[in-house]
Write a structure and sequence with these properties.
The protein contains 16 helices and 17 strands. Strand 15 and strand 16 form a beta hairpin. It has 486 residues and is α/β, with parallel strands linked by helices. A nine-stranded mixed beta sheet has the order 16-15-14-13-7-12-11-8-17, with helices on both faces. Strands 3-2-1-4-5-6 form a six-stranded parallel beta sheet, with helices on one face. The chain has a two-stranded antiparallel ribbon with strand order 9-10. Helix 1 crosses helix 2 and helix 10 runs parallel beside helix 15. Helix content is 35%, strand content 21%. The model has no long low-confidence stretch (mean pLDDT 95). Bound molecules: 6-O-phosphono-beta-D-glucopyranose. 6-O-phosphono-beta-D-glucopyranose (BG6) binds next to loops. One of its GO terms (biological process) is glucose metabolic process. GO terms for molecular function: glucose-6-phosphate dehydrogenase activity; NADP binding.
């Protein structure tokens, strides 16, 4: 259903995130009838652009990013009428008073400030907004990751944002939570009676979470080299996925019911520090190789540096120390320049306790639930079956296979579409509460510290491979393997 007309101000309105994700996403919501005429989408950046120049950029962004729907020229034209631009510098006073005047906030109208800038200026923007009275009424602020680079800096950002906005006004984005397939984890776990009785250490042998990308660091080298895969992907996206898998059933879908449960998982994570980081973690950095059918440069060439200790790949063995999960390893893995783009959660159940089959039946594989987050979204349950025919009882592993595209035949909204509208509606369920972000950093900090203290940096791996061989060794030591689709 449409929401009342609202204002959305995008700081960083000319930036990568706005152009690639936010503006095309808003256009989709608009063509779906969710954004009423009278709403305003205001891009803010330092560039001295006029309204019509900005609208042309928005048009290009929509045409590039919104697929077939953007072929409807009338829809694009009416969407552009909602778009406006203001040139502003967060570090200078000039222009802010006029900006506040132009916004003309009223107590009833929802106004969302989206901080899609580089994180160094989040705090200044929030201060300016407060100074100009732009923090009261139905005002909400969206904070993009990275929120800090460790616990202390994250707390400082949260404090600073908190001086201008209440927690109920603050929406910390982790766009993985907006992915349809991630929300489906809630449906799968709590809409079915089948899984929950088995969802524990007694029946589950291990959990694997892989978020692999085939791209390199692209144009974000400067940012990325100061972050690395643990800060960029694990502290947020992979831990959120882990929480969705591991959390206790919340009593309801109320925002805090779910977030309380996720927080408990984060706080139950076994610490990884100097004492065990060498056994439980592997870092990698890609070298030149081949990807997507062509030769690609290594990480150092890409960022134009002779050396760097920044990891572009991480594999970890995590553990949730509570009654449900005691002793079950959660193997996490993420990297750039992997052989393919694939995000997947694999739950491997325990082996059958006793086999009644002869050797001729062939190997019996443990059941697996494979939740494919992207691309080719779907859910597969691997089960043993009899191979047809008279040749005795021969077993084969077969997939009960559900593809979302085939089953539902609808377009999958992008994560940001859903999340943007949730902010406008004031629903924080899929956003991270302050304590969650900080608990995730509290776990990540000792890992980073342990790595800093190590003599060696990340291990090299060839672009287009699954990371350094040490990542394979990490799981093989436990007598297990990374799941491979076959
Ligand atoms: C972002 C990271 O949060 O997520 C990027 O900063 C990464 O490095 C991206 O490429 C991956 O998102 P998606 O939706 O393409 O899986």
């Amino acid at each position: 259903p449409p929401v009342e007309a609202f204002d959305l101000v995008i700081f960083g309105g000319t930036g990568d995130l706005a152009v690639r994700k936010l503006l095309p996403g808003l256009f989709h919501r608009y063509t779906d009838g969710q954004i009423r005429p009278g709403s305003r989408i205001i891009g803010v950046a330092r560039d001295a652009l006029g309204e019509s120049e900005y609208r042309e950029r928005v048009r290009a962004a929509v045409e590039k990013g919104a697929g077939d729907e953007a072929k409807n020229g009338d829809a694009v034209a009416t969407f552009l009428e909602l778009v406006d631009y203001v040139a502003l510098d967060a570090r200078k006073d000039a222009g802010w008073a006029q900006f506040a005047q132009k916004l003309a906030l009223t107590p009833e109208r929802v106004c969302v400030f989206y901080l899609a800038t580089s994180p160094e200026i989040f705090v200044e923007i929030c201060e300016r907004l407060r100074e100009h009275g732009l923090n009261t009424g139905q005002v909400r602020v969206v904070v993009e990751k990275p929120i800090g680079r460790d616990l202390a800096s994250a707390a400082a950002i949260n404090d600073a944002v908190g001086r201008s906005f209440g927690e109920h006004q603050t929406f910390r984005i982790d766009h993985y939570l907006g992915k349809e397939t991630v929300q489906n984890l809630i449906a799968l776990r709590f809409g079915n009676a089948l899984f929950e009785p088995l969802w524990n250490a007694e029946h589950i042998d291990n959990v694997q979470i892989t978020v692999a990308e085939s791209i390199g660091v692209e144009i974000r080298g400067a940012f990325y080299d100061g972050a690395g895969a643990l800060r960029d992907m694990v502290q947020n996206h992979l831990l959120q996925l882990l929480c969705m898998v591991a959390m206790e059933p919340p009593a309801s879908l109320a925002p805090d019911a779910i977030r309380d449960e996720k927080l408990k998982v984060l706080r139950a994570l076994k610490p990884i520090d100097e004492s065990n980081a060498a056994q439980l973690s592997v870092r990698g950095q890609y070298r030149a190789g081949a990807s997507n059918g062509g030769a690609v440069p290594g990480y150092l060439e890409e960022i134009g540096k002779r050396e760097s200790r920044t990891e572009t790949f991480v594999a970890l063995k995590a553990e949730v120390r509570n009654w449900r999960w005691a002793g079950v390893p959660f193997y996490l893995r993420t990297g750039k320049r992997m052989p393919e783009r694939v995000s997947e959660i694999v739950i491997t159940f325990r082996a059958i306790p006793h086999s009644i089959f002869t050797e001729q039946a062939g190997p019996i594989f443990a059941n697996k639930l494979v939740i494919r987050l992207q691309p080719d979204e779907g859910v597969k349950l691997m089960v043993m079956n009899k191979y047809p025919g008279p040749g005795g009882l021969r077993l084969r592993e077969v997939a009960l296979d559900m593809s979302f595209a085939e089953t539902f035949g609808v377009r999958y909204p992008e994560a940001y579409e859903r999340l943007l509208m949730d902010v406008v509606r004031g629903n924080p369920t899929l956003f991270m509460r302050r304590d969650e972000v900080e608990a995730a950093w509290a776990w990540a900090d000792p890992i980073l510290k342990a790595w800093e203290g190590m003599q060696d940096g990340p291990k090299p791996y060839t672009a287009g491979t699954w990371g350094p061989s040490a990542a394979v060794a990490l799981i093989e030591r436990d007598g297990r393997n990374w799941h491979e689709d076959g």
